[in-house]
Amino acid sequence: MDMLTSKIFLRKTKRGKVLKVVREHYLRDDLWCGSDLCKKCNQENSEVLDDAPISSSTLCACPHYVVVDTNVVLHQIDVLESPAWKNVIVLQTVLEETRKRSTNNFKKLKEIMATRKDSFYVFVNEHHKDTYVERKPGESANDRNDRAIRKACSWYQTHLEESQQGREKKKKVQIILLTQDFKNREQALKEGIPAYRVDEYVKSLKDFPDLQEKLAASHSDDNAENREPLFPEHWAPTRIMTGIKSGKLLQGIFHCSRENFLEGSVSVEGQDKSILLQGHASLNRAVDGDIVAVELLPEDKWTSPSGIVLEDQEDQDPGDQIEKEEALLTNSTKGKDLQPTGKIVGIIRRKWRQYCGILLPSVLAEGTRHLFVPAERKIPKIRIETRQAATLSSQKIIVAIDSWPRTSRYPLGHFVRALGNIGDKDTENEVKLTVLLLEHDVPHHSFPETVLACLPSMPWMISQEEVNCREDLRNLDICSVDPPGCTDIDDALHFRELSPNLYEIGVHIADVSHFVRPDTALDKEAANRGTTVYLVDRRIDMVPELLSSNLCSLRPDQERLAFSVIWEVTPNAEIKKTRFTKSVIRSRRAYTYAEAQCSIDDPLQQNELAKSLRGLNKLAKIMKKNRMEKGALQLSSPEIRFEVSTETNDPIDVISKPMLDTNSMVEEFMLLANISVAEHIFKHFPECAVLRRHPVPPESNFEPFLKAGKTQGFTLDVSSNKSLAASLDAAVKPDNVYMNTMLRILATRCMMQAVYFSSGTVAQVDFYHYGLAAPIYTHFTSPIRRYADLLVHRLLAVAISADVTYAELLDRKCVQQLCNNLNYRHKMSQYAQRSSVALHTHLFFRHRVQDEDAYVLSVRQNALQVLIPKYGLEGSIYLKEKDEDSKSAFIYNPDEPSQTCDNITIRTFDRIVVQVSLDSKYVQHQKIAVHLVQPQIAGLSVEPIKTVNVSEPTPKKLKSGN
Amino acid sequence: MAEILLSEAEKAFIHHGVQDDLRCDGRTRLDYRPIILETGLVSNASGSSRLRLANSDVLVGVKVELASPLSEKPLEGRLEFFVDCSANATPKFEGRGGEDLANEICRFLQMSYMSGDTINLAELSVLTGQQCWVLYVDILILECGGNLYDTVSLAVKSALYTTQIPSIKVATMDGDQPELELSEDPYDTKRLNTQNVPCLVTLMKIGNHYLVDPTPEEECCSSSGVVVAVSGTKKITAVRKIGSGSLHPESLVSMLKTASEVGTVVNKILMNKLLEEERAGKTQKVGFMR
User: What residues form the membrane-spanning segments (chain A) (predicted)?
Assistant: First the structure.
């Protein structure tokens, strides 16, 4: 037997060359079958497959092992997660094919196999001398793999047969092949291998009747073939590729509109304006986040986004019909503000994941086809098949999309798992939280043993050697200033006068890189988590609590390791000298912002710390002024905090976060430290420094902002950040104080996302941080809660020769990959924070109906978007109810824009009074309802209620506005 | 070619042997030495062969690549020869020592393949004027045991015979950019028709006679000779005189005639052997581990 073969295949390179690739392939005779009953193989205690497996299938009553085909793994991975599966043989052929076809499913399969080592056995058939098959002339790769799978099955059959010759025929272990491929099944049966479809088999498992719910929708729906297709065809991948190459098609990421489910846009890299898509046919089955190919329409067919707010509001299952969309997409503003318009001709990559949501109450509760409503607005409803609709209807469930055939109005999916009962009061919050974290892909599992093993053992002391190689700053009067209740203190400050004209200031940052060493399990976990996520009532740590709240936290009166930046500055905040050092410090006191403010303001306090704080504050003010002059922006987004009842954990009041001098004082020094560090690491590592940039937003982003300014009679200059800052400062109206804040909120929404990047991947001119008006910037000051800072610490430590470097740190590609993950995690954590606030707002309004001041954020064709500053809450007031024709005849003026009814005109930024309540028509899908109170308009506005409380008396009258 | 030191007596002996039609190794004037041939032993190449003629040893690999055709021949693909003289063959080849010989062989091969009768280069065209196959024929001379031209040409022909050209389809044309699609099946290939590919026959003149397949010693005794490229159709596609001596027109004519006859026979035998090898199917490769 020749144990060396070679695999030969041809490959076309990107540049059009044809390569012949030859891989040596070695065969072995020492790969064991993994069965307990086998007497031939020399395996030692590694048998996964039982000696006498018990069959719970009615289809195949005799004991058997199961071999799964690739298509089972690809299409029915969720079924495989069930504990029903025992004695499964996974062939290497299947593993490799899965890896090639779907990395996602491959990962899942790996996870399943890792957690259920006793049930899944991987047989390396490709390297076994008796089961390796070579591709035959004229055979497709697929056919060869099918043949390899069958060959492995029949090998197992004969191999096991020899070991169980004495057994009764009924007790002999059989090999069963599960495959969805008709041809493979037929061929297997011909070769004497029992083969079944996976759905057949799963349905026959009498011990697990629920498992069949998880079966993915079968793609060969019989009557689907005959139905009229609802959507245009997707182009073949090769046609799309050539189209993109020649520039006829554009490739981009599809974003569904938040307001109108029939509208979406595709952002194409390198193009200023995104491409507008309208209507079912143009969206052509794209789901938010997919990478799609778009064909531009001729310019005379371009339109502008319709002003209306549209939700896919079918409360009933409409079946597979598309409603007449002309009516839904009426576009009154044709001919104005035209945007490139296109249609999707194909999908390059699906970004489907699992979605969380609820079942739509169905007319036919006992039916099996139901509609699932995802919690995310941008995701379409999903059709699933389930028999448990009655039990699931009160639960939050997770659903995965399988396919979206042309004949189906909604994508087809299957039920994955239930998260828990929504109506259940005890679990409700917990369920909602889990949902929230799942939705935003926040890793929230508790830290595994391997990670905890990397932590230092307690009690922990700073060793003398450690002190020797650091600068001893324990004699300095260092203090920290943080929000109340903060346990992960990562920064502290000091100030002292060296001479009347020279001050020394220091920023001391927790030395997390001392504890989190590269390439440990702890490091990998932190890199994956990327950031600590702060939710309203809890914190999801990036590093275990021992570090975040104790060893790294710069607690008062405890010796801690720090990384210090120390400047010498003149009283005019001119920097004379900067140095970086690893140090040992002892913080004298942990102030809250308010306490620090008191110390500064109270002239009676004359201790060292109060003096330092005053000195710091003075310098910070000068620095801030300088920064503003350079064009830094002061933007605004409403930030609120919940007062949570200690007993019920329900929010009882909402407070907006105050902004004190000390807040901006700390911020100023952190900015200074970040900029100093950024310059230093970029000087030492021009190729791989981890920096943060905030791209200049394209002018087109500012359109809604400019429009809003115009309605108020302000000309806003957005040509640079400096002019923007100036025009924002100038845009003040004495009668509407909140207007300026609103403008700032709107401006914030025009901004780009700031991102981390590796300096080698971007030209130096693009390092600019627009918001801070800094030519170079990074994050250095919060290594406890951000992984980027940790990387920066490591770089800086190497730059001042306090630490050694490692390969990944200096590889700009590795660094960029890390940065990409950090950017993603950062974005997701922000969304999670927002959702958490929204969740608590819901809880807050559960027993309340309140009248509040609100401001009009934007005026739409059929709705007003309003902002309620007190809760930082946004909502829509629909002006025309669908069933009411002309009771409240608002006239929409798109130029201003404004809505007029009788003699009342509502414009952007107008102050109105609204009534806020929780709309709990559906237990599952609660939302905040906003109704107009003032100005009074017949048929639309509701009666004012003064702080009505449904279940409990309010302790105090709530003041509106701020 | 590699020079050998030979005494006058030895030369005279060879001379007399040729006169009597009995050479030192027992051959007549028109006998070849034994040939050992194996094809397909370089798995990375599209076609390959190794040919050993007594002590001359040559390894040939053919690589196919896509390129744009020459502007004067938009309908055809092309062959490119490259000869590398390994310093293993003789110390003189070290550094750039073998370059002259390599160029000489290269040029002559190119010349002998130029005739339209030998190989149909239109078969190598993929897309008129845009894409064609180029066959890079790499010849490695491992040992010099005389009669290098013949050895090389036989090895090249065998390698070309086994060359598999991937089948390629022009999937779409978009403006000026063709999109080529490679067949997914590695067995889906086509072969060149190598029936008429020329063999080179070297005739050396010693005294009044000429002989084929000279050993290095015989080459040393001869002052002149010709290398003739003979195609499968018995046609002579190229001729080249070697050595410093002169040839009488009469003997030249007779030499050409003989060469064309010998070439045809060699061609035929080679084709038969290649067919035979192909019919035997996949066998254990021998390579250099004999």
Answer: none
Q: Are A849 and A945 in contact, with CB atoms under 8 Å apart?
A: yes
Chain B (35-74) residues lying within 8 Å, Cβ to Cβ, of chain A: 43-46, 64-66
Model confidence band, residue A926 (pLDDT cutoffs 50, 70, 90)? low
Instruction: Check A12 against B182: CB less than 8 A apart.
Output: yes
In this structure, are residues B182 and A12 in contact, taking their beta carbons and an 8 Å threshold? yes
Beta strands A64-68 and A88-91, pairing class:
parallel
A238 and B181: CB-CB below 8 Å? yes
DSSP A669-702: HHHHHHHHHHHHHHHH-TTT-EEEEBPPPPGGGG
Helices vs. strands in chain B: H and E counts, helices first: 5, 14
Please compute the mean of the pLDDT values over residues A275-302 and round it to a whole number: 84
Contacts of B165 in chain A (CB under 8 A): none
pLDDT at B288: 79
CB contact at 8 A, A252 and A267? yes
pLDDT of A431 above 80 = no
Q: Which residue of A has its CA nearest to B176?
A: A246
CA A6 to chain CA centroid, Å, is 44
CATH of B14-289, one of 2.60.120.10, 1.10.287.3240, 3.40.50.360, 3.30.230.70: 3.30.230.70
**More confident: A507 or A368:** A507
pLDDT at A333: 46
- Pull the structure tokens for residue A761: 């991947």
Average pLDDT rounded to a whole number, residues A216-240: 65
Give the closest of B175, B180, B186 to A8, CB-based: B186
How far is A791 from B135, CA to CA, in rounded Å? 52
Q: How far apart are CA A436 and CA A432, in angstroms?
A: 6
- Those residues with Cβ within 8 angstroms of residue A517's Cβ, 6 or more apart along the chain or in another chain: A454, A523
Q: How far apart are CA B224 and CA B247, in angstroms?
A: 7
Q: Residue B286 forms beta bridges with which residues?
A: none
Q: Which residues of A286-321 are buried (b: 16+ CB within 10 A; e: fewer)?
A: bbbbbebbbbbbeeeebbbbbbbbbeeeeeebeeee
Q: Are strands A354-359 and A395-403 parallel, antiparallel or unpaired?
A: antiparallel
A892 with A332: CB under 8 angstroms?
Answer: yes
Closest CA to A670 of A744, A608, A614, A616: A616
Query: What distance in Å separates the CA atoms of residue A90 and residue A122, rounded to the nearest whole number?
Result: 5
Interface touch B46/A242, C-beta < 8 Å: no
Q: Which tokens go with B26?
A: 């027992």
Mean pLDDT for the stretch of residues B86-106: 87
Segment B49-76, tens digit of pLDDT = 999 998 899 999 999 988 888 888 888 8
Asked if B179's CB is within 8 angstroms of A10's CB, the reply is: no
Q: Chain A contacts of B45, Cβ < 8 Å? A: 20
> With left for phi above 0 and alpha for psi between -120 and 50, is residue A900 left, alpha or beta?
beta
pLDDT at B156: 94
Answer whether the bond into residue A897 is a cis peptide, omega within 30°.
yes
- Whether residues A10 and B175 touch (CB distance < 8 A) is answered with no
Nearest to A367 by CA among A381, A384, A382, A387: A387
Residue (of A656, A637, A658) closest to A744 by Cα position = A637
Against a cut of 0.90, is the pTM above it?
no
Report residue A254 as tokens: 């599809």
Q: What's the pLDDT tens digit per position in B169-211? A: 876 655 556 667 777 777 888 888 888 899 999 999 998 899 9
The domain segmentation of chain B, as residue ranges, is: 14-289
Q: Report d(CA B194, CA B265) in Å as an integer.
A: 15
The nearest alpha carbon in chain A to B178 belongs to A242
User: How many Å apart are CA A750 and CA A756, to the nearest integer?
Assistant: 19
